[in-house]
Amino acid sequence: MSRQQPMTPEQVKAKLRLQGKTISRWAEENGYGRAAVYRTLNGVDKATFGRSHEIAVKLGLKPATTLDA
């Protein structure tokens, strides 16, 4: 199984543009507030943990992490 490299915010924005999708629409489709997605995408929220981390993973900005119990 290969791990995909995280994308840059510019790459995420370009990918959404190619899909014909706005950031607001992506946020709505994924159950997040528009402002939270913009804060994560623009680096205002560091996405270390919590909801912003979840958003970053779904956008492809950060790799999904698994913890061994």
Features:
69 residues; 0% strand; mainly alpha; 4 helices
Explained architecture:
It contains four helices and no strands. It has 69 residues and is an all-alpha fold. The protein is globular, with a radius of gyration of 12 Å. It has one domain. Helix 2 crosses helix 3 and helix 3 crosses helix 4.
Residue runs with pLDDT of under 50 for 5 or more positions: none
Return the structural class.
mainly alpha
Instruction: Please give the share of residues in helix.
Output: 40-55%
- SS field, number of helical segments: 4
For the biggest sheet, the summary is:
none
Total number of beta strands:
0
Tally of individual domains: 1
* Percent of residues in beta strands: under 5%
Shape, per Cα inertia axes: globular
Radius of gyration: 12 Å
Order of helices and strands: HHHH
Mean pLDDT: 90
Termini, distance in Å? 21 Å
Write a brief caption for the model:
The chain has helices spanning 9-18, 23-29, 34-41, 50-59. It has one domain (9-59). The longest helix has 10 residues, at 9-18.
